[in-house]
Amino acid sequence: MSESLSIAAPELVLALGAMTLLMIGVFRGTRSFVGLSWGAVVIYVIAGLSLLGDASSAFAFGGLYVADDYSAFLKVLIFVAAAACTVTAIPYLRRARSDKFEYPVIIMLAALGMSMMVSAADFLALYVGLELQSLAAYVLAAFHRNEARSSEAGLKYFVLGALASGILLYGISLVYGFTGTTSFTILAPLMSAEPSIGLIFGLVFIFAGLAFKISAVPFHMWTPDVYQGAPTPVSMFFASAPKAAAMGLLVRVAMEAFGGLADQWHQIIAFAAVASMILGAVGAIGQSSIKRLLAYSSINNIGFALIGLAASTPEGVSAVLFYMAVYLAMTIGSFLVVLSLRDTAGRPIDDIAGLAGLSRTRPGLAAALAIFMFSLAGIPPLLGFFPKFSVFLAAVEAEMYVLAVIGVVTSVVGAYYYLRVVKLAYFDEPTGEILPQESNVNGTVLAVAAIFCSPIGLLLIGPIGRAADQAALAMLSF
């Protein structure tokens, strides 16, 4: 047991940290909100440092849990995103009088669940981690409990999430019934034989349940409503860390547990990729809400990332990891711009028309917005171009030419609404005054994200790419 606990040190740190923050919050109340938020950041740093050590794969808890370079890569992304979403929410929640000490605790519990997800080596561990993250997410969506939109978002997310969890659990039960195991290591060699119809049904149900978690079409319906209704920092969190964790989990399940059935599941992934790219590109065009636009952008980007998984090659897995790393920076930066938009009465601005003339009233914020929009559109030399190129290249090398062409076409279509936002900010007349940035911390995080996505970020392509390659190889040598 002691060896297993040492292997699962990041999760142990998060669990103990969440309980400690909870106890402090219970005794000190709302006035501890800011201190607990910064304490959470310290705990994420400690959890990240606990990832350092032996790079070889290690199993714990009887094979339910695996620690390897793949899970470590994703955990770094999860911890960074969770920390950013915790501290940047402070001014927003204080202004909205929702500065409850529970917020950093719930975020940390969600991060704990996501950390378990990406290290799951068994469907039982997968389900426990997924449900821990999901239960925390339901509460976060309805965090503004006195607002009808937030309560509605939480209810919608809960109902649809419960349905998706049921679908996933039914798929797991079918796989167990037809194979006699839930362990990825035992399942992998069994997949080389001719699969039964029941096993194929189980695979389809499992992929459907996981598709909900990444907002892939046709299981995307909750995303625009929840993103718009939830508090903006919560929407930023939903669009970043859980997406990376769920995508990492999907890749591990597909390539490890069902690697021998690639001919069966890569059609499902290819369809989800194409449908997500098309709907994400077209659906965002008519949106008037910034948060709904970013929701469709999230669906669109998940479609691009799925191209790498559809290739079902080491290069494709590496491309997915690289894509998610850059996607997190672009998404967090875009939502930080939204967090910074307030009218003269201090009310948040969610209407895209409110961006008109932003370059004249807030030139620095407009420049950051332009960087994120151009990067999301995949326009070189900004960093967002290179993950798209990597997934397209993986598809071409796997001879999936149609998928790559559709990806390029939908990328061009999607560029329309990104460029429309930039046009509003730089070429339209201002419609009102926008208050200055209210937090130096938020301004710093926004600047770091903008620099990362700018041409300066090209210096990091090599290290991130090598880390993604190493992580992919570690997972595929399972």
UniProtKB/TrEMBL annotation:
This protein's record includes keyword NAD: yes
Gene Ontology BP terms: ATP synthesis coupled electron transport
Subunit record text: NDH-1 is composed of 14 different subunits. Subunits NuoA, H, J, K, L, M, N constitute the membrane sector of the complex.
EC number(s) from the headed UniProt entry: 7.1.1.-
Listed transmembrane segments: 6-26, 33-52, 72-94, 101-118, 155-179, 199-222, 267-286, 293-311, 317-339, 365-386, 398-419, 440-461
Keyword Cell membrane annotated: yes
Record-stated family: Belongs to the complex I subunit 2 family.
Protein localization: Cell membrane; Endomembrane system; Membrane
InterPro entries, sorted: NADH-Q_OxRdtase_suN/2, ND/Mrp_TM
NADH:quinone oxidoreductase/Mrp antiporter transmembrane domain: residues covered: 120-413
Function: NDH-1 shuttles electrons from NADH, via FMN and iron-sulfur (Fe-S) centers, to quinones in the respiratory chain. The immediate electron acceptor for the enzyme in this species is believed to be ubiquinone. Couples the redox reaction to proton translocation (for every two electrons transferred, four hydrogen ions are translocated across the cytoplasmic membrane), and thus conserves the redox energy in a proton gradient.
Pfam families associated with the record: Proton_antipo_M
GO CC terms of this entry: endomembrane system; plasma membrane
Catalysed reactions, as listed in the record: a quinone + NADH + 5 H(+)(in) = a quinol + NAD(+) + 4 H(+)(out)
Membrane topology: Multi-pass membrane protein
Molecular function (Gene Ontology), one example: quinone binding
Keyword field: Cell membrane, Membrane, NAD, Quinone, Translocase, Transmembrane, Transmembrane helix, Transport, Ubiquinone
NCBIfam families in alphabetical order: NDH_I_N, PRK05777.1-3
Protein name (Swiss-Prot/TrEMBL): NADH-quinone oxidoreductase subunit N
Organism: Pacificimonas flava
Main location: membrane
